[in-house]
Amino acid sequence: MRIAIINFSKFDELEHTLNQLESLYKNIIGVEIDLFCDDKVALDARLQSNSYIRNIYPQKIDNISFFTLNGKYKSLRYYTKFNRYHIAVDTQGEFLSAITTYVLAGNTAGFTSKPLKNKLIAKLFYDETLDVKDMEKENQIYNLFHKTFGFEEDAD
Questions:
Q1: d(Cα 19, Cα 153) in Å, to the nearest integer?
Q2: Residue 150, by phi and psi: left (phi above 0), alpha (psi -120 to 50) or beta?
Q3: Which pTM was predicted?
Q4: CA 43 to each of CA 11, 31, 86: distance values in angstroms, whole numbers, following the listed order
Q5: In the chain, how many domains are there?
Q6: Which helix (H) or strand (E) covers residue 36, if one does?
Q7: Would 154 be classed as within a structural domain?
Q8: Nearest to 34 by CA among 71, 6, 70
Q9: Number of neighbouring beta carbons within 10 Å of residue 97
Q10: 127 membership: H or E segment, kind and range
Q11: Can you give the pLDDT of all 156 residues of the chain as single tens digits?
Q12: Is residue 36 classed exposed, middle or buried when 0-12, 13-18 and 19+ CB atoms within 10 A define those classes?
């Protein structure tokens, strides 16, 4: 199973996702995980040394505008020609990560929360959603993986 994980936030927030990757490897046979992250985060040695991630695709999203969105779309479509993902999981829940998730795979999963903007993003871009109001970040990622992939494991 090929999985794309999308998170354009800082490494501190991405670390919660990386902690949950072990459960994917324990519960899904033959899983291959690719990470789409910010280009500054991709250079971090802790991320480079993670054995669960097969490929890291850095994305420059600092100064993206309406005019550069078409170029970004074409570069993401380029990745999908070589990598057919079974599912793309957005672990950030922002607009740009939601678009990236939608472009990369036919099956998508992500977060929704109380504000109208996030509910609209979830309706437009995700097949599988998790309502994360009043949840800690570590529990959000665990519950999203649990709901999306259908496995149970004790939360440590």
A1: 14
A2: left
A3: 0.83
A4: 10, 24, 26
A5: 1
A6: strand 32-38
A7: no
A8: 6
A9: 25
A10: none
A11: 899 999 888 888 888 888 888 888 888 888 999 999 888 888 888 888 888 999 998 888 776 666 777 777 777 777 777 788 899 999 888 888 888 888 888 889 988 876 777 788 888 888 888 887 777 777 888 888 888 888 765 554
A12: buried
Instruction: Specify whether the backbone of 37 is left (phi greater than 0), alpha (psi in -120 to 50) or beta.
Output: beta
Is 156 part of any domain?
no
Does residue 155 form part of some domain? no
List the structure tokens of 27. Answer: 């519960």
Give 99's contacts (C-beta < 8 A, 6+ positions apart): 125
Cβ–Cβ < 8 Å for 149, 28: yes
Q: In CATH, what number is assigned to the domain containing residue 68? A: 3.40.50.2000
- Residue pair 91/6 in contact (Cβ under 8 Å)? The answer is yes
What's the CA gap between 124 and 138, in Å, rounded?
25
> Does residue 70 lie within any of the structural domains?
yes
- Show the domain range for 87: 2-149
The pair of structure tokens assigned to 86 is 């079974």
